[in-house]
């Protein structure tokens, strides 16, 4: 804004020099106009910055409009005589006495353009000040919104992790109470999952390959609690997942859907849970989870889910605004959730 004001002053002086040079038939304009322009620029800058630094912060910023109008009038009452006086002083060194007397007789006539010039200076100062304050406020607001977004996402992650741990510890407790030999392996799988949650999920995004590996560890942990043909009880198919780290995804984003299937599904059915992950050539990600529901739990069909799914919806709104589709359907005796993510 300050640079723009300097550009305005230089542009105004350049126009005056050009017009004076054309009207004086080659006389050296800088010897006549430079002192006057410097004084006028100093007076204009004084008005500009008094309005900028004093009037607006102490009146308009406090909704004191009448005080601001009175301040502008007072500023003009000081500026116009000083402006006319500077013009008179510089003219006295370069113009004949007759021209001086003529200028003195026309003070009233010269006061009108000087008043208009003063108002234009105040208008520019006010416009620059308001624009600068607005841009600063917008930056502060965006930063505040970003901080609030990060805080909300952190709280949602904090809600996801205890929710997951609660269910997993219940599973391990069930194995331990049965004195199952698979309890130590369950603890090992939980340690792997915890390592991912501690060291990976704090990042904004993680490679999809790491998220898939995390899901496989979770599924291995679930298989330990299933009797009999556990491998056939859980189906996890992936298609188009790049082997490198080029495709990124928010951490712990897919887990609530998988966890919800084991929480509310009929694990005695075969297959109990079917999970499919596909990355399309246009980088759209499709993720679906289907599980059977026991007849006594048929009331759960079509329900949006518990805390985990509610938090997931909110995270999707924050991380993938208008770039996701989350659909919950209820085929006969089943519960299916489909998630589609689009890159920005």
Automatic annotation (TrEMBL):
<dbReference type="GO" id="GO:0016301">
    <property type="term" value="F:kinase activity"/>
</dbReference>
<dbReference type="InterPro" id="IPR010559">
    <property type="entry name" value="Sig_transdc_His_kin_internal"/>
</dbReference>
<keyword id="KW-0418">Kinase</keyword>
<dbReference type="InterPro" id="IPR036890">
    <property type="entry name" value="HATPase_C_sf"/>
</dbReference>
<keyword id="KW-0808">Transferase</keyword>
<keyword id="KW-1133">Transmembrane helix</keyword>
<keyword id="KW-0472">Membrane</keyword>
<feature type="transmembrane region" description="Helical">
    <location>
        <begin position="65"/>
        <end position="82"/>
    </location>
</feature>
<keyword id="KW-0812">Transmembrane</keyword>
<feature type="transmembrane region" description="Helical">
    <location>
        <begin position="38"/>
        <end position="56"/>
    </location>
</feature>
<dbReference type="InterPro" id="IPR050640">
    <property type="entry name" value="Bact_2-comp_sensor_kinase"/>
</dbReference>
<feature type="transmembrane region" description="Helical">
    <location>
        <begin position="112"/>
        <end position="132"/>
    </location>
</feature>
<dbReference type="Pfam" id="PF06580">
    <property type="entry name" value="His_kinase"/>
</dbReference>
<feature type="domain" description="Signal transduction histidine kinase internal region">
    <location>
        <begin position="152"/>
        <end position="227"/>
    </location>
</feature>
<protein>
    <submittedName>
        <fullName>Histidine kinase</fullName>
    </submittedName>
</protein>
